[in-house]
Structures are given as C-alpha cells and as structure tokens.
Amino acid sequence: MNNINKKLVAPFAVLAFVCILLAIIGGFRAYSPVPFWDMWDGYINFYAHVMDGDTSAWWAQHNEHRVFLARLLFWFDLHFLDGRGWFLVCINYLLVCISCLVFYRILHEKLNQPEEQTLRWILTCMVWALLFYWAQEENLTWGFQSQFFLAQLLPLCGFFFLHQSHNSVKHGTRYFACAAICGVLAIGSMANGVLALPLMVLLALFLRMKWHRILLLLLLSATCVSAFF
User: How far apart are CA 202 and CA 28, in angstroms?
Assistant: First the structure.
C-alpha cells in the first residue's frame, strides 16, 4: 500500500482502534456478576428447571423466542464457572469479532482488485468501528444478549456460505453443508431466526442452484419452522 493510500486509511484505522479500545474498557468497567433483568428468569430459573430434570426447559419459549443456543452458554457458565458472567460477556465480544471477520471476507471477495484495496480497508475499519460502537453497550456488557448477536450472525453466515457454494466448484458441497447448518442453528437464536431457511430457499432459487439442494433447504425449512411453532 503506497503512502497516499496509508494516509487515506489511517484515520479510519484510528477510529476503529478507538471504538474497540473504548468498548473493551467499558466492558471491564460495566462488569458485574449480579444477574440483571431477564437473567433471573431466562438464566437462573432456566438452570433451576434443568437441574430439576425438566429437559423441556431447553426448548421452552422465552417470550416469543426459543433461545436454545444462548441457553447452552448459560448452562456452561452456571455449571462450570459458578455463574460469574464474565464468560458470557466475553462471548458477546467474540461474536462481534466473528461478525467483523465475516464482513471482511465479503468485502475481500467483492473488492479484490489492487485499485480497490484502499476502499476495502476503509470499509473494513468502518465495520469494526460500527459493530464495537458503544451505543450498543447493553448488548456488549450484558451476559444475556448473546442470542441477539447470533440472530444476526448465523443468517449472515448462512447466506454467505450459500453464495460461496454456488460459486465454488471444488468446495461447493462443503459450503452448502455449512449454509444448511447455519440455517438450522438460526432457529435456536431468536424468533427472527425462523426466517433464515425460507429466505435461503429463495436465494437458492434466484441463484438457480441444483434442484436437490433447493429441495433439501425446503425440507429443512419446513421441519425447523414446524419444530419452532
């Protein structure tokens, strides 16, 4: 990258660094092991039901959602880490990092020419800055919020992998399997995750994918939507 490009990217890199640094500092300052709000029912009470042998608690609704994936994290935190909550907060930050990396991978694919390198890095820095922006401090520092990140990240990964399966000859099957897994997992994030697989069916139709892949996505969609409701 030449000096002119570095000068263009530098302010955005500083912005991203500052946003990430402030988010980390804020996470340390806001940390508390005391359960907050929905955690008393969705975290503590859920674990109590599981310990009493109520296996239905794993798939039970939390309001209109089925937060199965988040409950796996809740159970791990309470069972192995004495419910201190720091693990759940770290997971929130990790999920944001993974989201940033997925967006970078998308940008790298779409802006892969040498003359687009500067724009790619500017947009990458903006993604990191926006996703770590302190305006969503409650999502970052509240251990109960992992499902909010998962509800966005899993469908995003599902659509990305489905796109990759269409473009890749060598690894198409592998990418399609990853897409299907992300779509299935999405229903265990929040209620809006139910839409992931049906929308993936539409994407597969628009991409004119092989009929057996479309049929498999359709069957998975019908099964998962039925299981959710």
Answer: 43
Residue range 198-214, pLDDT digits in tens: 999 999 999 989 999 99
Query: What pairs with residue 65 in β-bridges?
Result: 62
Distance separating alpha carbons of residues 40 and 38, to the nearest angstrom: 5
Q: What is the pLDDT of residue 92?
A: 96
Residue 53, helix vs strand vs coil: coil
Q: What is the DSSP string of 165-224?
A: HHH-SSSHHHHHHHHHHHHHHHTTT-GGGGGHHHHHHHHHHHTT--HHHHHHHHHHHHHH
Return d(Cα 18, Cα 78) in angstroms, integer. 33
Q: Per residue in 85-116, pLDDT tens?
A: 899 999 999 999 999 999 999 999 888 888 88
Q: Provide the terminal-to-terminal Cα distance of the chain, rounded to the nearest Å.
A: 52
Both tokens of residue 176?
């399609």
Alpha helices (H) in 31-171, listed in sequence order: 39, 46-51, 68-80, 86-110, 117-131, 137-141, 146-167
